[in-house]
């Protein structure tokens, strides 16, 4: 019997000191060619994992990223502080979304 293991693709554009963008949110760490490559990868996966900070950047700079299929969205938000009015939460009934929080998140901020 063959066992199936998840295949993981890690793609990141970060500075040597681990930054994703400047304080103003400006990010010119990847080229347009690389962005096209990343979008092509995203169209082939079952799920995409991002952190809350990247989510904020994506909403600000790329609000209408459209993929042919909608992979499961997995968002790391240790403090459960994603804006409840955000488009990502408003569309979670159409696109499966998992929000991962830590024990330090207060129960009253959990999203149902």
UniProtKB/TrEMBL annotation:
Pathway terms, separated by semicolons: Cofactor biosynthesis; riboflavin biosynthesis
UniProt-recorded Gene Ontology molecular function terms: 5-amino-6-(5-phosphoribosylamino)uracil reductase activity
InterPro entries noted in UniProt: DHFR-like_dom_sf, RibDG_C, Riboflavin_Biosynth_HTPR
EC number: 1.1.1.302
Keywords: NADP, Oxidoreductase
Residue span(s) of domain Bacterial bifunctional deaminase-reductase C-terminal: 6-109
GO biological process: riboflavin biosynthetic process
Keyword Oxidoreductase: yes
Superkingdom of source: Archaea
Protein name as catalogued: Deaminase-reductase domain-containing protein (RIB7, arfC)
Gene designation per UniProt: RIB7
């Amino acid at each position: 019997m063959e066992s199936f293991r998840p295949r993981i693709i890690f793609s990141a554009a970060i500075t040597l000191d681990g930054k994703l963008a400047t304080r103003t949110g400006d990010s010119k760490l990847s080229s347009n060619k690389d962005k096209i490559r990343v979008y092509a990868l995203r169209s082939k996966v079952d799920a995409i994992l991002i952190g809350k900070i990247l989510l904020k950047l994506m909403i600000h700079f790329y609000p209408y990223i459209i993929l042919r299929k909608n992979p499961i969205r997995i968002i790391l938000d240790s403090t459960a502080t994603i804006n409840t009015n955000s488009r990502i939460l408003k569309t979670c009934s159409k696109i499966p979304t998992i929000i991962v929080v830590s024990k330090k998140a207060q129960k009253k901020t959990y999203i149902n």
